[in-house]
Design goal:
Layout lengths: L2 E5 L8 E5 L4 H20 L2 H18 L1 H16 L3 E6 L3 E6 L1 H8 L8 E4 L2 E4 L6 H17 L3 H14 L9 H11 L2
Parallel strand pairs: 4-6
Antiparallel strand pairs: 1-2, 3-4, 5-6
């Protein structure tokens, strides 16, 4: 227990009298919670625990985002069949990268304007020549967002854009999902 200085009220000097403070039941509970949290953190840092948790999370994220990934695969199929290139990208998440002339055509005629790449679930459709590492990192951030939000992601994305527009801001640049993806780019 702690020795806590208590001012002696009887004396005019600034001397202190030390008294032993009794532990309150709440102190013991806080101490035990902290010890449990530290032990759990040590266990979770272990590679034998981290790797299976990573793969379990990845599989659950892929399953949760599967409706979006299905749409992405339907768009990627003609890109891949007509002189396209497919590649599996592995990093913090897994995604299928699809590029080709049809992807260039689709991205140049996107309803929201021309773009370099777009992510639909765990599928990234990108320009054949213009894909930089920074753009890929940006799109992989959207893949992680889709894994987190699942089939709700398009609605959450549009709601974030609408909220930015209602507040008089740019619907793309002030979208919280785009801000997070740009932040991920900076760590490149």
């Amino acid at each position: 227990m702690d020795d806590a200085p208590i001012e002696n009220a009887k004396s005019d000097t600034s001397s202190f009298v030390f008294q032993r403070r009794k532990a309150a039941p709440g102190d013991l509970r806080r101490f035990l919670r902290r010890q449990m949290r530290l032990r759990l953190q040590r266990v979770l840092r272990n590679n034998y625990v981290q790797r299976p948790l990573f793969w379990i999370g990845t599989v659950l994220g892929i399953a949760w985002a599967s409706p979006l990934t299905l749409v992405g695969l339907l768009l990627a199929l003609p890109v891949a069949l007509l002189r396209g290139h497919m590649q599996l990208v592995r990093g913090h998440t897994i995604a299928l990268l699809v590029r080709g002339p049809i992807a260039d055509w689709l991205l140049n005629r996107h309803p929201f304007g021309p773009m370099n790449a777009m992510a639909l679930g765990h599928v990234v459709i990108a320009e054949y020549q213009g894909l930089s590492a920074r753009v890929l990192i940006h799109e992989l951030a959207h893949v992680r967002q889709a894994a987190r939000w699942g089939p709700l992601f398009p609605f959450a994305y549009l709601a974030s854009s609408a909220w930015a527009a209602i507040r008089g801001r740019n619907a793309y640049w002030h979208n919280r999902f785009e801000i997070a993806a740009r932040k991920a780019e900076k760590h490149f």
